[in-house]
Amino acid sequence: MDTFLGIDYPTWWFLVVGGLFSGYAILDGFDFGAGAWHLFFKKELDRRVALNAVGPVWDGNEVWLVIGGGALFAGFPLMYATFFSSLYIPFMLFLVFIIFRAIAIEFRGKEHMKWWKTLWDTCYSISSIMLAFLLGVVLGNVLQGIQIGEDYLYQGDGLLEFLNPYAIMTGLTTLSLFMAHGAIYLLLKTEGKMFEQLTKLLKKGMIFFMVCFGITTLYTLIYIPHLSDDFKSNPSLFVVPLMVFLSIANLPRLASKKRYKLAFFFSSLTIALSLVLVAIELYPNLLMSSIDDKYHIDIYNAASSTKSMQIMLTIVAIGTPLVLGYTLFVYRTFRGKVTLDETSY
Amino acid sequence: MDTEILARIQFAFTIAFHYIYPPLSIGLGLLLVIFESLYVKTKRPEYHILAKFWTKIFALTFGIGVVTGIVMEFEFGTNWAVYSRYVGDVFGSALAAEGIFAFALESGFLGVLLFGWNRVKPWVHLVATIGVFFGSMFSAVWIVVANSWQQTPAGYHIVGEGLHARAEITDFWAMVFNPSSVDRLTHVWLGAFLAGAFLVLSVHAYYLIRRRYVDISRKAFRIALVVATVFSLGQLFTGHNSAEGVAHNQPAKLAALEGHFEASAPADMYIFGWVDKEAQKVSGLKVPGGLSFLLDYDFKTPVKGLNAFPEDERPTQVNAVFQFYHIMVAIGMTLIALTLYACFLWWKGKLFRRRWLLWVFVFAVFLPQIANQVGWFAAEMGRQPWVVYGLLRTSDAFSQSVTDNQILFSLILFLLVYTLLFILFLYLLNKKIKHGPYDESETDDRPLTKEISQAITG
Predict the structure, then answer these.
(1) B424 in contact with A, Cβ within 8 Å
(2) Considering only Cβ atoms within 10 Å of each terminal Cβ, which end of chain B, N or C, has fewer?
(3) Hey, are the CB atoms on A327 and B452 less than 8 Å from each other?
(4) What's the whole-number average pLDDT of chain A?
(5) CA atoms of B90 and B146, how far apart (whole Å)
(6) ipTM of this predicted structure
(7) Tell me, what DSSP letter sits at residue B48?
(8) Which residues of chain B register pLDDT less than 70?
(9) What pTM value is reported for the model?
């Protein structure tokens, strides 16, 4: 197999896709998280501030999903085909909620009746919660393996199978992590009473997350032991889960010191490291079959041709510095606390 | 109903809905760049007001475009798994380029475009606007390249057999510049510019009829009229090039476009007509030998008709393809006539004195939209029964493991959500138009900036 810098092309592309999904989870993670807290704010002005904290960036954050999905399609077409068609219902629900969320953001400020705002606030918050939860549910199904059979075709009933206890647990864990992450983001963007309220909410969020994370970890170790095989065979990899724990443990410490910028860095790091953990558990598989090992989809049987991968890696190498450049420019332009003006939501 | 039909209905419905918005974003993007450049150059406040006003409407179309676009991408995997597996290797690089060069560019700068008016200098803001506009132009490039590859595959080879067969890329640039991509891309771009320009014309014509914002509307109307005239005429050329390409690369589609059945005979060109597929006859108004003449400058040149192709390699919906194509052409001609007439009146100094003409422009906003839709319907239905021309049949391309119940579920969901989304779009568009370009006359409940910032910091 052809390699570049000693690493084969499918592995390179696995890293690219992983990087994009981590970027997506960090970015849309904070705006889903912020949305999940929305109904905890009672005052109209607070809700507007919360909405405008994500206002200039939520659209851009969602584009990371488009790019990540495109990268998966491009590099691992077989994975894309089986993954999306097997988890049909959760993906369709995800799409519907992502549209509802966009509708709610655009709609709420356009009329001033109280019921109108309450309606769209509720819609916004529930969609945010469901989106975070569904992402976790999909992840849980990937970790557990799904019923893939002959020709890499899905064999299950495809209706409510995706909603199994493990997937519900990973869903809640994802939601709780995003909520902690979102609360920290809002702390960076608010002042005064709202800021005080958020410090309390963040505490709740962190407790919620730690409970979920603990249960999911135990569940994984006991019921899905094959996921830890890579760690048993290569003990040096234990450094990754250790780093996840340290990164999580660091959050309450930084929160109590009110160092929220650093806390935001660490909540982002926690998301990234958790996904690294997932990547190590899976690699080189992408989607495991619960029917038979020979139907596992891995980065080699799903990969595009070397030629295709080479072209795409060239494009990524040229494009990434550009993307990072203007992303930084945008976040710099809107740094600091929210100020509302006539262009706000 | 069977899974294939349901999957096709769902795709057609979601893509048609999606395609209302990106052309508007691209077209309005062009107008925004013009308005804002004029502002940066002349420093006249009316251009600033126009740019800000149209940015709000742009934001609306862009937002809906993004969310309905995510649906399209997911649907490749959910509903068209075999297709995804088949084309992934070839489309991969186009999609990677689209994501990195186009989507990231437009969405990155979008925040600055929408919310950055008071935060960056005017020229920096203009750079952001241009960034968003270029981003949207690029995103059209890559998606049209991918679709053109489905019409005229190039730069690939087939590896494997049966369910495991797939196209693999051999030559990136041959794939990008496949025989139809340039003609189709320019046709799509110009169609988008027209969609944007006619929306601007419509709204400002309405203001002029109501005698509101008269000065600013006259300026905007004239600028948009120039854009509309230039690109209406331009569509003649790109359209003609596309048709020649179809004749060369997809003769079965060309035959369906004009309802030409005879295997080898001079072909007529219809102004309008109705195709009876059973009788293999078209009744309507025609230019005898017109198609032959357009392709070869000779009324007698034989053109391959539908009967020259095996039964299972012809488009099945000949009349639909015929009608969609002819509606598009008719609208194209109407737009040329309309814009040229308006330019003539402008030259005579009577542009804004014809109220009926302003009314025509108010409603003309639907024409480019309809033309864009039916043009795509003709292109896609004319390609049938193939999803990738000559290589992969639509009936082989859908997801084998997805059931009709699942698709029915999602189709109903989309029908409901998109209906809501469309009502929302019309409501917000109407509200923004009624509100008008000036912020001073704001009537909604938004508190003034100062009060809010005091409330927050205070």
Answers:
(1) yes
(2) C
(3) no
(4) 85
(5) 8
(6) 0.82
(7) H
(8) 1, 440-458
(9) 0.86
